[in-house]
Write a structure and sequence with these properties.
It is a single chain. It contains 7 helices and 10 strands. By secondary structure, the chain is an alpha/beta fold. The chain has 2 domains: 86 residues, no CATH class; 133 residues, Cytidine Deaminase, domain 2, CATH 3.40.140.10. Helix 5 packs parallel to helix 6 and helix 6 packs parallel to helix 7. The longest helix is centred in the middle third of the chain and has 14 residues.
Length: 240
Amino acid sequence: MRTPGQDEDFVTGFLLSEGMVRSTKEISTIEFRPGRPPSEPRPGDAPGLEADRCHVRLASGSDAEPRARSLSRVHEIRPSCGLCGIEDLDELMAGKHLEPREPHFDLVRLAGILEEFRRRQTVFEHTGACHGAAIVDASTGAFVGFGEDVGRHNALDKAIGMASRASTDFGRCLGLLSGRAGYELVAKLLRVRVPILVSVSAPTALSFDLCREAGATLIGFARGAHQKVYWDEGRLDARP
């Protein structure tokens, strides 16, 4: 279950953020096969739901397949919990401390980034019921990845996928979330090595612990010119 659109970004971001592939180079092809809703049966067919499917072929020589099998996780993508079906959370974490003090980010610029983020949330503007996520270059403020979806995990996967397909260096970026910084969303961002995490709402206690352990910068309640810095590793300038 997801909001249609950005399908290749969505699948690419999901594979990266779940640790099934380490880079887009491990993906050879992505083939999207649209389904049909119950209201649109084919001639001679009984009404019924046929789900959308996406078939991914790995690059020759890639070790992503045995890595995916080692995750012991088999289920459809859901817009709810991003951790369902995982037996060992440590299997999905990068396990490496992020580079301290890099990249530098001036908090004064955050208000403009948040304004641009809200401007891009066109589905939310029309419905009031859609999550958004973005990957932003910390140096320039440019949006290199963006996604909207009924599921907050899906929105983040779309943003990560879009950024990765543009050969983005995630280590120079910040991740922006339209809701709370839940543990599973933080895990996705840290897994692709994003060092600065920003949410417009509060982080959970587990998110704080995870960012502290990884050496990530965690900012919550980012609204206009105001924010709360929960953890930093010397990356922030103009800090109050």
